[in-house]
Amino acid sequence: MRRGRARQLVVVAAQQPRALLCPLTPPPSRAPRQRHTGIPESRDRSRDASAQQQPAAAAAAAAAAMRLSDDDVSASDEEEALSGSVGGSDDEGGSEPGELGEGGPPPAAPQPAAAAGADAAQPEELLLSGELSANAALMQLQLGELLSEVAACRVPGRTAAVQALVGELGSALGRLPAATLAGEADRGVAALLTSWGLNPREVTLQAAPPVAVRLVGSWALGAAAALPGGCVDVAVQLPSGCLHHKDILNYRYHGKRLLYLTALSAHLARHPAFAGATQQLAPLHGDPCRPALLLHLGPRAAAAALKAAGARGGAAAALGDGGVLLRLLPAAGLDAFELPKLAPHRNNVRWVATAAKPAPGGAADGDAAAGGGAAAAAAELAPTPHYNAGVLADVLLLLNQLRLQAAAAAAGPRFVDALLLLKVWAQQSGLASAGVLPPDARACYPAPGGGGGGGAHEAQRPPRGGDSGGGSAAAAALASAAAAQADGFSGALLAHVLAAAVQQAGAGAAVAMSPLQQLRAALTLLADRQAWAKGGLGAPRDAAVPVELRLLAQQEHARPGSDGGIAPAPAAAAGPVAGSVSRDAAKLAAKLAAQLTALPAAPPAAAFRRGFAATLTDGSGHLNLAAGLSRSALALAQASAARALGLLSRSDLEPEAVYGAVFGQAGGLARLFDYWWTVELPSDAAGGVPGDQHPMRLAEAQVEGLVRQALTSRATLVRALRRPPGYAPPGAGAGGALAGGGAAVPRRIVVGAVAAPVACLRVVDVGPPADDAAAAGRFRALWGDKSELRRFPDGKINEAVVWEGVPPGKRHALPDHAVQHLLLRHLPPGSVVQGCATALDPLLHPPPGGGDGGGSSAPRHDPAAEPAWTPAGGPASGGGGGGGGGGAPPSAGVSLGGGAGGGAAADTAASRAADTALDALGKQLRGLADLALKVIAVLPLSAVTRHTACFFPRPHPLAEGAGGGAHAAGVAVPRVLEPIDVMVQLEGSGRMPSDAAAFAKTKAALGVQLAGALAAACGAHVTASEEALEVLWQGFAFRLRLYMDRDQPMLAAAAGAAGGGGRSPAGAHVPLPLLLSRHHGLVAALEAAHAAYGPTVRLAKRWLGLQLLLGPCQVTEEAVELLVGAVFQGPSAAAPPASRVSGLLRFLQLLASHPWSAAPLLVDPSAEVGPDARRALQVEFEARRAAGTLSGLFLAAPYDVHSSRWTAHHPSPAAAHHLVALARAAAEQLAALLLLGPDAAPARARLAAAQQPHGRSGGGGGGGGGGGGGGAAAALRALCVREMAALGAAWRAAVGPSLGGFDAWIVLRREALPFGGRADPLATAQLEQLLKAQRRARRALAAAAGGGGAGARKRRRPDAGGGDVDSDGDRDGGGAGGGGGPGGAAGALQALLAGSGRVDAPKASRAVLRSIPEQVLLTKRVDQLRGELLVGFDPVGRFLAAAAERYGHVALLCGDPLGGFPGVGLKWRAEAFLPGPLRPVHAHGVCELGITAAGGRHVGLVVPNVPQILSELAELGLGLVGEVVLLQ
Asked: Along the chain (1528 residues), what's the average pLDDT of each consecutive run of 10 residues?
């Protein structure tokens, strides 16, 4: 539903009479709220009856549902005593380590299900119910529109088609032939079994048809979401006769599970209904030991399957163009294994022990522990909670699905909508992944050796909607989805969280709650850190087994040849006495049969708290549904839920803003973290046989823990992004589509951290006190030689880590230093830790003369962008730094952009010097006497004083006070000074003239008096004008703007006298000094509140300058500061950025995602703008849009609600569209680089280009090449050096210039650019490449036409007049620069007809503005040299303004006035080249078309004359313009 329709319904609802605002029907009664344990409270029927008669009962119940206190989460604070072990030897599954037993709370009575309520009310009915405010009603309408878009089950015919496919799949699998499968029959299966520690020869399976094939998951609930990666989950229950009760030991069940999947795959590949399906293995929830079988049925294959199922002809069309993806999930029966032996405190992997114990080889299965010394071995066994939970998940799959459906029915029909909203929120927040990933993204990191799929494998990849890996956006999205799938919230887990939340509220309250209220209840439960810490969350305990599952077991036992579900014991496990074996088998059969009637007692809650980071038990009490969640993933979910709840509770925000922040922001994981590290481990670090978890998961947990220890309170959250390992590409073998190799583990680990804004910049990390010997010893063991004993000013003596030698401008890199030191100390030799905190620093600190190449000598590579290597050598670096044995290279840390070190210190010193000079100047001004009107305030206005200037001016040697001005010999002295604006407020006077012109002259006279007094008092060099006073003071140039309290009335009177008072926008009459002062106050407050705000603004300005979109004619600097302010203070589901990297990424995402043509952007950090003003702002925005006067951006602030200054006219809609496209591309590349590191597509493309025969290999620092290892180790380190160099180049290119798309270029003389030394080397090189390509194309055309010849390729010596020279020394001016041809614009016009023209300006016009010539410095005195200085002179900005005023209707002119870029790009406006009538104001740049109308009369239509326009632009910039190039 569109926004206009939503607002119309809100207005209609507000206008209804009061009688219509009461509920139309009595709400359902509220059942008493129950505790999560499932024990029902006593019911008062009279209270229920009275509640039915009260209209407000539903609202009260919903409000009560929101109040979740500690009483709702009943977890005993006392530790439950764990009794001793039950009988059984080590051979039996589930041996307990230590004294763990099976005691637990008694089963509770099942919670009665509430009757389902009426159908969910439509949004219009909700409006008329009187229970919603206008904002809440608008939110409901928006959520209704969202639900209609994402509810896949509501597509007509889709649910029936899915059910028909699942039915046909069950029929096909029901005819699975009985066979004996061996693990060694296929090499790929054998390799996978070997990687799990199994002997393939000993893994066999008696395959039989499945007991049940059931639709499970979201499609069974009717809550399937149309999100990327969606699939249809189908449970396939293995016959219990195929399994042995000891298969829970040592991954035996996993091996049989895999063999059963191979049997299903081979059978379906031969079945005519599913022969056209593409099959592939995928790890379930990121666990490589629990694969699932994916069946992708394209449109044709789905149509064939539906035809076989007897569906109607057009049923396949309901599935969409992409077909359907079925995910087959193996399940086991309730009578397959003993549930108590799968408790979290039991051990079922024999090589997992607390003491050091050798892991088994490929031929061992762990039964060696059953021999002699079993009692001694048992004492060393450690619990395997994650392994046990994986087996239990298969056993209880169907049971939990049935109970979840019952809970959804009891919660009412709105449960499905609430679940859909919860899924959308979780996926937009980077917490969940909908189903499966595309095949080429399941292993986000390529396997070692560059393993990729073969041709056959590539042909088998199922087609997906959109590019799955071709672009940076797809790569970043897939990386986020992969991390969420391996360590996040699945759809089933979200459904159980929602069910637990509504069950806590009570059955009656749940039925009365709207989807948004149920969502709030789930978010409240997620954000409750105390409840999750207690570990008592879960569904009510229910030991009963549904009848459906008992019938399935009876049907299986009634099959011919069934053994009752108890497979015979292996020969090796049989005891010496046959009678005892039979008695044990009978006892075991009785236990397993009893599990089909009532589930055994659940393990104690303490066992779950000890084994898992997060606990959410199912109704059986045996399975932890959140077993796969890490502590960091839970913490991220809790923080995201708390922020979402805060946004939903804010009444000062518009519903559109809240909806966009909670459900609309899809930046992925990249926008959530502030600091990132990529850790590359040695090839053997993450290998080996899995124990309780996969070795890669253990390595990720170790790295995450070390990073958390390194950062301490610097970070509020640290998370290692878990990557799901991918299976090797399928090959040709007996297993058909599943004949692959082992699982390929990721090569690198990516870690992100949410930083504390202030703590992350501290220099000293204080450790334990010296008198705590144990803690001090651990601290020294952790940090090594970095730890030292220090006495602090308060007298305490503590261990501490001091990061000395880090200047203030580089403190943002301190987290990188801490993490690299600790990881390199404790990780194995050969590890490489890469940080990117300084990756963007080269943008702010260009190398000296970086863009001053003098034509062809401009560097094509930025040396500051080279990664800085820090080898971890020396004995003090611990185990990771010694170089290791076997030729392993030493560990090393890599800092991207680490070469730009000197510029940060110089910027900090210049900023502090400017602040000191301003304070001294203000004190001097306020102390002046003998003035007609005294100075009462001196307020800063410049971006330099609020620390947001892109480049800080350096102290000038000639801008000192009296007696100063000495300069060093041989050092260039700039000729142009950047002024620092200051507002000087004079006291008011009633004797000032009332005439506006006389008032201005009088104020100018006061300025002259002030200048004389200041010069007489301190000898400062002051220049007075009618606009301002220019003061040279302590090395800086200050521009003083006088302000009086009568300035605003005089400005309004002058506008009224000119006849524009009624038509000018409100706020346009505010004097510029006052407006700048208010803007300065807003920005200074943001800069003081957020340490990363200033650096982010600087990077944003630099990025816009590199795109030639920064300046008064495009995006002003004040507008950039407001945009970044919206990033830090706007409504968002993520915390404000705490680093410059995350700040820039969020700034780019804001530019790319905000609907600029549909809504304004209000930056209101202090919430000063009220609701009425916000509505008036929206009305004004829509009025400007309707009138066609809306600019590309509409920015409003509390001091300028009407956007009358910074974005009133600029940028144009075309420029804004270009800006949005550039921002989207840059944000996508940055996100990919953060999430994937060297494996991102931009970095790999750079690496491939560098490895070409003529490519330039990136030279890393000295740390890259260490190690006296062999050839393999040296080659691996050399590859790593090249990868890091390519990664650094990719970072620079991601935020670098994008100069394509322009139609013409105006090349500027470098000597005429005051700030040419700031030019970006990459931008200059890119411009030269464009010009060279144009020259080559022109020479080729001239040669083809016969007009080229040797003259076109004649080499000349470049003159000293500036301009560009080709890299081969060719000055190709097309004749315009020749000695005999006409000069100036006339020569350029002639040359433009050939494609390019060099402008030869007279010598008097070729000013040198870069610096004062050395000869002048030697021959003139200091006072004479001050006359050579130019304060605030901006030739490029003035040229752009004049050119835009004259030809802005024809072309979009883009330049970088402050960045020193030697070029101005022109993009023709398409609408300007439509033939039209002659307009006198544009007659100077048009040419007439000789068009004859049908009647024979001449029609005088004109179009722009491009050569004439370019020649006039060259004449307009005579002396500044060196060449004009028209691209062909």
From this structure: 40 34 34 36 38 38 38 35 36 45 37 36 40 70 88 87 92 91 88 89 91 92 83 92 91 94 93 90 87 90 88 80 90 92 93 60 39 46 93 94 92 91 90 64 35 32 36 70 81 93 84 90 93 85 86 77 47 42 80 88 91 92 92 93 91 84 81 93 74 87 94 94 69 43 69 93 93 94 92 92 88 93 90 91 74 42 67 45 51 78 81 94 92 93 94 88 54 88 92 88 93 91 91 93 88 65 53 89 94 95 94 92 93 90 95 91 90 88 90 91 85 92 93 89 86 50 44 76 88 88 91 88 88 83 62 42 42 38 51 62 76 81 84 92 91 89 92 86 80 62 88 90 86
Q: Which residue type sits at 85?
A: S
Contacts of 1500 (CB under 8 A, 6+ apart): 1477, 1478, 1488
Distance CA 1486, CA 1467 (A): 17
Buried b (16+ CB within 10 A) or exposed e, 234-267: bbbbbbbbbbbbbbbbbbbbbbbbbbbbbbbbbb
pTM of the model as a whole: 0.84
**Kind of pairing between the strands at 892-895 and 726-727:** unpaired
Task: Say if CB 486 and CB 285 are below 8 A apart.
Answer: yes
Alpha-carbon distance 1157 to 1194, whole Å? 9
The single-letter code of the amino acid at 1173 is: A
Reading the block at residue 1220, the tokens are: 């949005």
3-state secondary structure 103-160: CCCCCCCCCCCCCCCCCCCCHHHHHHCCCCCHHHHHHHHHHHHHHHHHEHHHCCCHHH
**Are 952 and 845 contacting, i.e. CB atoms less than 8 angstroms apart?**
no
Helix (H, G, I), strand (E, B) or coil at 234: strand
Burial 1090-1123 (b: 16+ CB within 10 A, else e): bbbbbbbbbbbbbbbbbbbbbbbbbbbbbbbbbb
Cα(424)–Cα(433) distance, rounded to whole angstroms? Answer: 10
What is the CB-side half-sphere exposure of residue 933 using CA atoms within 13 A?
22
Integer Cα distance of 881 and 607 in angstroms = 39
206 neighbors 410 (Cβ within 8 angstroms): no
SS3 454: coil
Q: Is 888 helix (H, G, I), strand (E, B) or coil?
A: coil
Structure tokens of 1501?
A: 């239509």
